[in-house]
Amino acid sequence: MRTPPPAVAPALRAAVCIGRFQPFHAGHLALLHRALEKAPRCVVVLGSAFQARSPKNPFTWQERAEMIRLSLPEADQHRVQFLPLRDWYDEARWTIAVREGVEGLCPATPGAGDIALVGHFKDATSNYLRNFPGWRMVSVERLHPADATSLRDAYFGSTRADMPGTLAALVNQVSPAVKAFLQGWCALPAFDNLRQEWEMLKGYRAAWATAPYPPVFVTVDALLRCAGHVLLVRRGQAPGKGLFAMPGGFIEQRETAYQSALRELHEETSLNLLPETMRQSLRAVMAFDHPDRSQRGRTITHAHFFDLGERDLPEVRAGDDAASVQWVPVSQLAALEDQFMDDHFHILDHFLGLTA
């Protein structure tokens, strides 16, 4: 009896690489080369695409796309497409957005082949790679020891004057194109602002380094809607100095979450409404607890959504650590996504459906 020939997997339609690439380093480049070996084109999903600049997310998605494009040989540059994707802080919603975005760029046609997801299972943060049944999983070993967190620490731990030496020491960890990009980028005003914030966060984490257990912080935020507006503050201090945020802060020892929310709301905005008015306007309370939602560390916030209806906008005045306070039309919030601290835009989105 003749043995049938082994089944041959159909050709791949495209390969997918997912990451934040903050910054794009030699390990990412090796992974991308592996993806381009597997398929005629590659979709690079750029996470944290619409976040405000921060020490964790210093580069816009357009800047990261440029780093990636310039790191490739010219013959391969046209084979790569970029899919910028926001951080939903909701794994199911994020997975749907990735799948729909990739399928939109690489639509299925007769004989088009499969989609391959090319990635490295580093630790628990890589579990998202298991969320795409129907795509061909191509798991690869770690291809280079470069680490984005260490690179950012070296970068923001350096001054402009010392930057040539810092980047020279990283010569084996980033491509010449990325090295040139980082050298030029540190001349921007954003570098000084983020370097100061990086120093603040470094000190903050060091202060808790001797705790017997990794700390879990508990905070509150107040979303106040009135007559088609929401009440926002501009932060006056790091982290997130100059960014929009909802009034909020840490729970004090002898307060409930609700009491803390009212106190923070008054301290930061000088809002002075009757307790009964606030109780009657409370519509929902929800905990937001994604492990990566705050740069300060593991922080769980209890967001309180108040709706004052169509009354006149109450008078407010900035106080405490708020640089300013203002009533912002809900219709303008979507355009301000990249000006919010941490996940505050996504909390607003959850309650108000800004990206529906």
TrEMBL record:
Q: Which GO terms describe its molecular function?
A: nucleotidyltransferase activity
A Pfam family (short name) is: NUDIX
Q: Which domain of life is it from?
A: Bacteria
Tell me which InterPro entries the record gives: Cyt_trans-like, NUDIX_hydrolase-like_dom_sf, NUDIX_hydrolase_dom, Rossmann-like_a/b/a_fold
Chain ranges of the Nudix hydrolase domain:
215-351
Keywords per UniProt: Nucleotidyltransferase, Transferase
Which NCBIfam families does this one have?
A: cyt_tran_rel
Protein name in UniProt: Bifunctional nicotinamide-nucleotide adenylyltransferase/Nudix hydroxylase
